[in-house]
Amino acid sequence: QGILLPQHAHVLEVLPWVPDYIRGKWVQTTNGPTPLGVIFHNTNLNHVGYSLDRSSVPLCQGVNEEDEQNCFMRQRKKFIWENRDFNVESEAVLHYIEKFVLFGREKERACDELQEEMPNKFVLYNVWCSKPKYWFPGFSDGEKACVYGTGYPIDHTDELIKGMYLFDSKDACCVAYKAACQAETESDKKEQENSSENGVSLFHSYHTLSSEEETEQKALLRSRNKKKRKKGRRRKQEER
Hints:
Layout: E1 10-15, E2 46-51, H1 65-74, H2 76-79, H3 90-106, H4 111-117, E3 122-129, E4 134-140, E5 143-149, H5 159-165, H6 170-176, H7 186-193, E6 201-205, H8 211-239
Parallel strand pairs: 1-2
Antiparallel strand pairs: 2-3, 3-6, 4-5
């Protein structure tokens, strides 16, 4: 779907509201790429998601919360996410355009800056932005070394991982990773300090699942796998 878009073009995916009692939860995934988002994952496009809520569903309006599920399920075919329309607030789209698209075009933005501008209903699936430079354990000419730049393969917004892997000074990196600095020469030092990458880098910032949501997702995955195995066995029996 994004094959004809130019480099670093923007894709906003609207994530339908899907309650637990009907199929389709996978289309509102925020802790990783959605089934559609897999197409854009690790590409040169900017892919952002926006989670809709109950107000986006133009069905059973005015029904009290206790009767809402019965009301939806009585018109199940209309209610399934791929069959119904969505109401999307214009403010959400305008915020995305102003605080992400236009904000990013004014100048090269740090990933943290973009993240701070986007409320929690947005998820940055695949974003090109400027990462801050740090010292981190890496390789120089095939040898272990503390390297300076933006080439670290971790999410620098994760404070726990950041504290273990990214450092403001080379000395701090060398203290934490002694083996990375043992064979260093003066020429290595100069090369490492000048090895900082320029330009933008790819950034993923997913939402973290609560323990309850994680348990629910694992149960859903087990159920799907069970159904697949059952279908596979049935198909083999039919082929015989």
